[in-house]
Design goal:
The protein is an all-beta fold. It has strands at about 5-15, 20-25, 30-35, 40-45, 50-55, 60-65, 70-75, 80-85, 95-100, 105-110, 115-120, 125-130, 135, 145-150, 155-160, 160-165, 175-180, 185-190, 195-200, 205-210, 215, 225-230, 235-240, 245-250, 260-265, 270-275, 285, 290-295, 305-310, 315-320, 325-330, 335-340. The strands form eight sheets. The protein has a four-stranded antiparallel sheet with strand order 1-32-31-30, with no helix packed on it. Strands 2-3-4-5 form a four-stranded antiparallel sheet, with no helix packed on it.
């Protein structure tokens, strides 16, 4: 029987740096890779041409790309805005929009690309796409480590023992909820109803943001370091540092409370990345066992659709915006691009 979908290996590009950030261009033709040694490198998917955008010394923390604007955060305490107009041969225009002793965390654009936000210590800072500061959200009471947008006017932040919902359209109103642990991840469902936090104590916390109901699932081996929502908000894929399997919770119907999660097993070592196709049903897992695995989770689908074996451990993985390609960055400094072939 022909598999429902497979991954087709494409270009292999040597970055010569340890990848710490990865972002696709909006048109799915290029990638920016942030490196542990501080470089920001643009890579054209067709042909593999590389251009150094700039640098954050001593290292890059995160990158995000919307329209002609790239934002980056670095270990130098800065957040920088890069103008990418003109293509790969243009001179890169950069502006430092923030600098502080704290490492900026949780950097990310709002879905429409008109605003971006990040954490600085106990505060959440909001900027417009031109790099002008709009808000400083205070009153969190503890250092923050995780941040996610919730629609246009809310941000969800997490710190040790607490989850916060910040309103950007109501004078910076902050609402605090109990989290019961140290958050390793924060993921808000695409339908904006649930915030899921993987915790360092081997549990996961679900907060239903409209009703304020919460659930706590235990039994993980090690820290829950990966959480990822499917595009339709039905499934939440999770993984922990002490296990090789993927645990998938089903939020359809009454939700996952009182049900057995779906267990997906194909890895032999720790999983380093989980990423759902943003416009389709496919899930990718990538691990230290040199494997990149393609899944289509569901009640009747527990086996992998395809397994690609690399020449070393896999690290970060990211689907292109159009859902047709997958980028996998390896700790060795290689960037691999796969295309999706669906039956």
């Amino acid at each position: 029987m022909t598999p429902a979908a497979t991954l087709v290996p494409g270009p292999v590009i040597l970055i010569d740096d340890f990848p710490t950030g990865l972002a696709w261009s909006p048109d799915s033709t290029a990638l920016v890779v942030g490196g542990g040694e501080g470089r920001l490198i643009r890579v054209d998917v067709v042909g593999g041409a590389q251009t150094q955008v700039g640098a954050h010394l001593p290292g890059v923390i995160a990158v995000d790309w919307r329209g002609s604007t790239l934002i980056s955060a670095g270990q130098d305490g800065t957040v920088r805005l890069w103008n990418l107009e003109g293509g790969a041969d243009a001179q890169w225009q950069v502006r430092i929009v923030h600098k502080a002793p704290h490492w900026p965390m949780g950097l990310g654009f709002r879905n429409d690309g008109q605003r971006f936000a990040f954490i600085s210590g106990r505060d959440v800072l909001v900027f417009d796409a031109a790099g002008e500061q709009q808000l400083v959200l205070t009153g969190h009471g503890r250092p923050l480590s995780q941040l996610a947008w919730r629609g246009r006017d809310e941000l969800v932040a997490a710190g040790n023992g607490a989850l916060f919902v910040d309103r950007t359209d109501a004078g910076g109103k902050v609402t605090e909820f109990l989290l019961e642990g140290t958050p390793m991840t924060l993921a808000v469902s695409p339908d904006l109803k649930v915030a899921a936090s993987g915790l360092a104590d081997g549990t996961i916390n679900f907060r239903y943001l409209n009703s304020q109901k919460r659930s706590r699932m235990s039994g993980y081996e090690g820290k829950v370091h990966l959480t990822a929502w499917s595009a339709n908000s039905r499934l939440l894929a999770t993984a922990s540092t002490g296990a090789t399997g993927i645990v998938v919770w089903d939020f359809s119907g009454r939700g996952p409370e009182g049900t057995e999660p779906l267990q997906l097993d194909a890895h032999e070592e720790r999983i380093e990345s989980l990423t759902w196709q943003g416009v389709g049903p496919y899930l990718i897992s990538a691990g230290r066992d040199w494997r990149v695995v393609l899944w289509r989770p569901g009640s009747k689908t527990r086996t992998a659709l395809d397994i690609q074996l690399l020449d070393g451990p896999a690290g970060m993985a990211c689907w292109s915006p159009d859902g047709k390609c997958l980028a996998v960055a390896q700790p060795s400094g290689k960037l691999r691009v796969f295309s999706l072939k669906a039956a």
